[in-house]
Amino acid sequence: MTELWIDVCAVDDIDEEDVMRFDHGQQTYAVYRSADSEFYATAGLCTHESIHLADGLVMEHVIECPKHNGRFDYRSGKALGAPVCVNLKTYPVRVEAGRLQLAVPN
């Protein structure tokens, strides 16, 4: 399967240690900027109860779901403990000419 690179936003639209929601087609993604200005992307819904992760709290490299406080390492998608036990899907990102792009399945 090939990937399609889509424009998300300007890199300055996401603060360090923050997350934003990005919808494309029928999918929702969560896009993160770490404290060292690296960018990451995961599925946008918690694997526990399909709550938008962009409404959660970012701490270092962890996103905490706003409903039941499930936590994931957003770099790898790894679930970090109950109530979440299913990892998040991650997606490649890149910066081109000051814009953040996300690779989605084509």
UniProtKB/TrEMBL annotation:
Instruction: Provide an example Pfam family for this protein.
Output: Rieske
Annotated CDD domains: Rieske_RO_ferredoxin
Q: Which UniProt keywords apply?
A: 2Fe-2S, Aromatic hydrocarbons catabolism, Iron, Iron-sulfur, Metal-binding
| PANTHER family reported in the protein's UniProt record | FERREDOXIN-RELATED, RIESKE DOMAIN-CONTAINING PROTEIN
Instruction: Give GO terms: molecular function aspect only.
Output: 2 iron, 2 sulfur cluster binding; metal ion binding
Task: Name the InterPro entries on file.
Answer: MocE_2FeS, Rieske_2Fe-2S, Rieske_2Fe-2S_sf
Could you confirm whether the keyword Iron-sulfur appears in this record?
yes
Secretion signal, residue range per the UniProt entry: none
Q: Which cofactors does it use?
A: [2Fe-2S] cluster
Gene3D superfamilies documented for this protein: Rieske [2Fe-2S] iron-sulphur domain (2.102.10.10)
User: What name goes with this protein?
Assistant: MocE
Q: Which organism is it from?
A: Pseudomonas taetrolens
Q: Which family does it belong to?
A: Belongs to the bacterial ring-hydroxylating dioxygenase ferredoxin component family.
Q: Where is the Rieske domain?
A: 6-102
Coiled-coil residue spans: none
